[in-house]
Prior knowledge:
- There is one protein chain.
- This protein has 189 residues and is mainly α.
- It has 8 helices and no strands.
- The longest helix is centred in the first third of the chain and has 34 residues, at 2-35.
- The mean pLDDT is 92.
Amino acid sequence: MGDDVRRNDRRDLGLLLLRLGAGGVLVAHGTQKLFGWFGGHGIEGTGQFMESVGYAPGKASATAAGLAETGGGTLLALGLATPAAGAAAAGAMAGAAAVHAPNGFFNQGGGYEYAATLGLTAAGLAITGPGRLSLDHLFGHAVNRGWMIPAAFAATAAGTAVVVGARARRLRKQKEGEQEALFEEEYME
Length: 189
């Protein structure tokens, strides 16, 4: 009995640390987008960036990403509505990973490593659950039911697929509109 209690305590403490760490990072990133905190650019600047990388309209995309990161991160840290929180954060990170994917995997080269790590951590917490040191546990798991996990991931996957797919089509259309020069200028003189 004693070993089981210690194992459960360790598991719950580990989940709390993961939730606080990942949730805190997500909140910081989201508030950069929403409010310009922590050196961020706020809705206007982030909206312009989002538009430049193919997420349009930019301001709405910045708001959606900021809310998913801030809201999902806050709820993950608190351990409240964990399936929805983790799925929302994972969806936002999938959108970020799509932007960084052309640069490869590693973050040092501008790749998607960081977004993938945050997204997978959020997804893992959504599936595993928040542990006993959480508001979900305190409230009797009213918003952390088993059926909520596939529902949250299905809704998030559908929304993310639509948004990322629209971005891909927009970028493809943009690229098709760019023509390469038929002749080099030095031969035109």
